[in-house]
Design a protein that fits this description.
heterodimer, A: 201 residues, mainly alpha, Aspartate Aminotransferase, domain 1, Arc Repressor Mutant, subunit A, 2 domains, 3-stranded antiparallel beta sheet, 6 strands, B: 249 residues
């Protein structure tokens, strides 16, 4: 094995450790941290890691600070972006339940996220409560919304306006979700999802 | 409006501008003109928001929120979950103890004193033994006035004399009995003072198991006599039996 290959393998292993083991309160690693640990060519290392992870049904996801994903991200945008490892293949309902999510809770999260996306990324808490109230008891809605905020799916400002937070942006594919809700075929939605999850080149 | 995300077309900009135009010639003071300038500034923000709103609505990404809301309301929870799971890719995260954290923990453990030694630093207070407060104590603490107590005792003594009537003595339990258990205990307590201060004499017939109270015409000094304590238990069960007997009577 040449020195170069050995070095790259070491870097891929290091990248896997950094991305998989939680180092901060929020999972994932910032671009500048990866650059410091893996060198300037860290994106190539991440790409190699992504190829390996895909075999296991996982992928590296990049979430930028900007709400819109930049088409050709600048170095500064990449430095500030957060890199996560997420599941590539969707969970089944049984798997989701086994990972501690009740069906009701997932449904409420789906409604909340879809509604916020349709309202350009922010919606008053009152409006969301009003929609959820048709199918869930009030106490459960309030409890769930607070829980989504705590887990990083939503953030709330002093005017009780709810926004999508870092976890929702990392885990949920907004286009696929809305398309599926509006009745597009599953395959079309999956296609959109795959395109969006591609790593920056 | 910007903060709450309300439809910016709810503001009638033309109407607002016409109102400003109508009143503008009448303003002479600078603060009034400044208010108009501020209103114009805010209206320009509304126009910008209207522009953004139109741009977004005409873009291919736009999806009518009302349509989404309607779809969400008509969908059942199970279908919603199925759809959501298709677009949900949870983060894979593992938690572990780092070597540094383990080292910190070992250092902490080594420096931590045993529990017994740590508790020594905070000696527990030694409480004084519980006891009874005497009338003198209560008087000293200003919880009871001596005059009031003496007056209450005098009245109680007169009641004893009245109840005894022409007889020489009255059964103890008959005298102390009241409609409630609390009052009965209070009367027994006051009776003990009548005896201690010489207002009455206690006569005990051990064989018959009877106790009598003999009121004295004047308080008798106990000088020269050895004072003895006679405990009489006024328990709730005895009181209940007395009440039952009274009801039968």
């Amino acid at each position: 094995m040449s020195e170069e290959v050995a070095s790259t393998t070491r870097k891929v292993k290091r990248a896997a450790q950094m991305l998989l083991f939680q180092r901060h309160r929020i999972p994932g690693v910032k671009g500048w941290e990866l650059k410091r640990a893996l060198g300037r060519e860290y994106l190539s290392v991440i790409e190699l890691l992504n190829t390996e992870l895909e075999k296991l049904g996982l992928q590296v996801k990049t979430v930028y600070e900007e709400l819109e994903t930049p088409k050709t991200p600048s170095e500064e945008q990449l430095d500030k972006a957060r890199f996560f490892v997420t599941l590539k293949i969707p969970l089944t309902a049984v798997e989701a339940t086994m990972s501690g999510w009740r069906v009701d809770d997932v449904a409420a999260l789906a409604v909340t996220v879809a509604y916020i996306i349709s309202k350009q990324g922010k919606a008053p808490r009152k409006e969301i409560v009003q929609i959820l109230k048709e199918k869930f008891p009030q106490w459960k809605i309030e409890f769930n919304l607070d829980r989504y905020v705590r887990r990083g799916y939503l953030s709330q400002d002093e005017n009780e306006m709810l926004y999508l937070d870092w976890r929702a942006r990392a885990e949920i594919d907004p286009k696929a979700l809305l398309n599926l809700i509006l009745g597009e075929t599953q395959s079309q939605a999956m296609e959109t999802s795959t395109k969006q999850d591609q790593l920056p080149s | 409006m910007e903060r709450k995300g309300v439809d910016p077309f709810e503001v009638d900009v033309i109407d607002a501008l016409q109102i400003i135009k109508k009143y503008l010639p009448g303003w002479e003071l600078i603060p009034d003109l400044c208010l108009d300038a501020e209103a114009l500034n805010k209206l320009s923000t509304v126009i910008k928001l209207q522009g953004d709103w139109l741009k977004y609505r005409s873009s291919p990404q736009f999806i009518n929120p009302l349509l989404i809301e309607l779809k969400l309301k008509t969908m059942d929870a199970k279908r919603l979950v199925e759809i959501f799971l298709q677009s949900w890719h949870p983060i894979v995260e593992l938690q572990q103890l780092s070597f540094g954290r383990i080292k910190e923990a070992v250092n902490y453990w080594n420096q931590l004193l045993p529990l017994e030694e740590r508790w020594k630093k905070f000696p527990s207070p030694t409480p004084s033994k519980p006891g009874y407060a005497s009338i003198n104590d209560l008087t000293r603490l200003r919880l009871l006035s001596e005059e009031a107590f003496n007056e209450a005792l005098q009245q109680f003594w007169q009641e004893l004399v009245r109840q005894t009537g022409t007889a020489v003595k009255i059964p103890y339990w008959k005298f102390i009995y009241a409609d409630t258990y609390e009052d009965t205990v209070l009367r027994a307590y006051l009776t003990s003072f009548l005896i201690t201060y010489g207002y009455a004499t206690l006569e005990i017939k051990p064989l018959e198991e009877e106790i009598f109270l003999i009121p004295n015409p004047k308080p008798k000094a106990l000088a020269g006599k050895q004072a003895i304590s006679i405990p009489i238990s006024v328990d709730y069960q005895s009181w209940k039996e007395m009440r039952k007997a009274r009801k039968v009577e």
